[in-house]
Write a structure and sequence with these properties.
This protein is of the alpha+beta class. The protein has two domains: about 130 residues, SH3 type barrels (Roll), CATH 2.30.30.790; about 80 residues, no CATH class. Helices cover about 35% and strands about 20% of the residues. The chain is globular. It starts with a helix and ends with a helix.
């Protein structure tokens, strides 16, 4: 392995550390969530705020859903083309697989095709462009793969308090509906294996003792809530005594 291949491998590992890349190919229907950065400028007519007005960047997520018609390239330069029909017109978009602007790639349906390039779909419409769904054993296995926890109620805890979880990893855990200290504190061996495999953590959950840290933070949060409740009860009892007098 030469120096260029080593650098590419490092960049790929860095991208995989922030988000996973599912197994997909031509004929599969995918939903690509893209980060779109928008900048807003102040009113140019407002002279008072003109000097202080700086461009403020706002980021939003945009979903692009369609059929994968090709995958090309290799390594860090690998990309895939997604085609969809928008208002009766065919629209295609090329995405680099390891682009930092892609927040998530979700496979919605696996298609049964015999070609590596589905460019023939460009000349077809309606039923002629329909792709049958794969129902073989491999497709069932991929569809049955673990996709995350059940949706949790309430606001998310600040999981960045756990050493080893940064903002990017926190967002990826959110995509798996892992947002509470209690969830991490009660991780089973299967949960650890699933999260580690999906997020490509290379055993960091056990090495950094996420479970122990979450249990400690959960105990501290519980302990801080108990005195507040006691003070409230004492205040109510004192009010009752004064009224009785």
């Amino acid at each position: 392995m030469n120096i260029i291949e080593e650098l590419e491998r490092e960049q790929i590992n860095a991208a995989l550390a922030k988000r996973g890349v599912p197994e997909f190919g031509p004929g599969d229907t995918v939903k690509v969530t893209v980060r779109v950065v928008e900048t807003s400028e102040g009113d140019p007519k407002d002279k008072k705020k003109k000097a202080a007005s700086a461009k403020q960047a706002a980021e939003r997520l945009q979903a692009y859903e369609g059929v994968v018609i090709s995958r090309s390239g290799a390594g860090i330069n690998e990309s895939f083309t997604v085609r969809k029909i928008s208002y009766g017109e065919g629209v295609e978009r090329v995405f680099p697989i390891y682009s930092p602007l892609i927040a998530e790639i979700e496979v919605l349906r696996r298609g049964k095709v015999r070609r590596a390039k589905l460019y023939y779909l460009r000349g077809r419409r309606g039923k002629a462009a329909r792709i049958f769904e794969r129902t073989d054993a491999r497709a069932r296995k991929l569809n049955a793969a673990w996709k995350g926890f059940k949706k949790q109620k309430g606001e998310a805890d600040d999981l960045t308090q756990i050493k080893g979880i940064d903002e990017d990893l926190f967002l990826r855990l959110k995509q798996l509906n892992c947002i509470k200290y209690e969830q991490i504190a009660t991780f089973s061996d299967d949960d650890i294996a699933n999260v580690d495999d999906v997020l490509n953590l290379d055993g960091r959950i056990e090495k950094e003792d996420w479970v122990g840290q979450a249990q400690k933070l959960l105990a501290e949060a519980t302990a801080s809530e108990v005195p507040a409740e006691d003070e409230g009860q004492e205040g109510e009892s004192k009010d009752g005594e004064t009224k009785a007098e």
